[in-house]
Amino acid sequence: MHDFTVLILPGAYASSVAVTLDLLGAAAALAPRLKMPRPSWRVLSPDGGSVLLGNGLRVDTRAIPARTRDDASTWVVPGLGVDQAAPLAARLTRADAQRAIAALRRHAAHGGHVAASCSAVFLLQAAGLLHGRRVTTSWWLAAQLQRIAPDCRVEADRMVCSDGPVSTAGAAFAQSDLMLQLLRRRFGGELAEVVAKMLLLDGRQAQSPFVIPSMLAGGDELMTCLTRRIEACLPHPPSLPELAAQFAMSPRTLSRHVRAATGRTALALIQSVRLNRARRLIETSRMSIEQVAAQVGYADATALRRLMRKATGATPSRFRTNQHPASPG
User: What is the rounded CA–CA span in Å between residue 120 and residue 117?
Assistant: First the structure.
C-alpha cells in the first residue's frame, strides 16, 4: 500500500510537481535516520505514460486504476498550470480533467483523503469535495472559487487549510507547505521538521504578505479603479462612504461589488492597499518605519507594526532589504 498518490495532469506546473516528488524523496531518505518507516508513493495521470508538464519537462506516470476502494493513500494534486479563471474553467471540461475529477470523487467516497494546491483546488470543487469546508487556493483565484462554491468557506489569506479529509493550499510554491503538512499528519512532526530543515524551507502560515491588491481585481474594471483611487489618496485613505460617493453608489452597493470581485470587504481592500504601499516603501526606500507609517496614513509606527503583524505574521523590519538600511522596525 502507498502513503501518497500524486495525480498529475498534462500541463501541470512543473515546479509544483517537482517539489512534491522532491519532498517525498527527501522524506524517504531521512526517515531511516529517525527510525521511522519510509513514505511510499505512486505517480498517476488520467491516461498514464509520459506526461508533458507546463514548461516542457516530462514525468512518467501510470494510468488511474479502475478501482480505488482499498486505497488508503492521500491523493495529492499539484497545480494545473492555469492562473486565470476563464482558462481554468475551460481546462476542467477536458476529458482528462473529467477523469481525474471522477477518480477523486470515488476515492473520497471510500473515505480517502485528498489534497491540492493552486488551481488544482478547483478539481476538488468540481468533484463536490469542498462542501461545508474551510479551504484556500491562490489568492487571486479565491474570489472565483467562492463564487462557484458558496457552500464552502474560502480563506484566501491562509497558506494551507486542512479540514477533515480535505487539505488545500495557495499558489504553486505553497505545494511545499502542503506536502510538509501532509507528512506531518501521516508521519508526525519530527519527520516534517527534519525535511524542512534539510531543504531550507521556512514555515509560512499566510499568503497575505504576497498579495498584490490590484491583482485582486481579476480584470474587473471597477476594482482596478478603486485600488488606484485608494492609492492616489494616500496618506489620507478615503472612508467607505467617501469612496462610494466618488463612484456614484451607496456604501452597501460598493461593498457588495467589492465582495463579489475580491472575496473581501471594502474596508479590507482599503487596508490591503495601504499595507501594500507600506511594504513597498519599506523594501525600496530609506524611510524609517515612522515615516512609512505617515506616508500611508497611520497615526504612528506602532499602529503599522501591529496591523502588518496581524496581516502578514511579520513585523515591518522583516521586509527591509539589505540594500536600504534604516532604523529598526
Answer: 6
Query: What are the pLDDT digits (tens) for 224-272?
Result: 888 889 989 999 999 999 999 999 999 999 998 888 777 778 888 888 8
In sequence order, the β-bridge partners of residue 135 are: 154
Secondary structure element (H or E) that encloses residue 189, with its range? helix 189-198
Number of residues that this document lists for the chain? 329
Q: Are 36 and 191 in contact (CB under 8 A)?
A: yes
| Contact status, residue 127 vs residue 104, Cβ threshold 8 Å | yes
Q: Which of 136, 128, 31 minimizes the C-alpha distance to 79? A: 136
Q: What DSSP string runs through 274-309? A: HHHHHHHHHHHS---HHHHHHHTT-SSHHHHHHHHH
- Enter the DSSP assignment of 38: P
Q: Which amino acid is at 175?
A: Q
CB 287 within 8 A of CB 271: no
The runs of H, that is alpha helices, within 81-137 are 85-91, 95-109, 121-126
Long-range contacts of 296-299 (CB under 8 A, 24+ apart): 296/234, 296/235, 296/237, 297/234, 297/235, 297/236, 297/237, 298/274
Nearest Cα neighbor of 12 from 57, 48, 49 is 57
Q: What is the pLDDT of residues 107-150, one digit of tens each?
A: 999 999 999 999 999 999 999 999 999 999 998 888 889 889 99
- How far apart are alpha carbons 180 and 145 in whole angstroms? 24
Are 139 and 210 contacting, i.e. CB atoms less than 8 angstroms apart? yes
CB of 114 closer than 8 Å to CB of 122: no
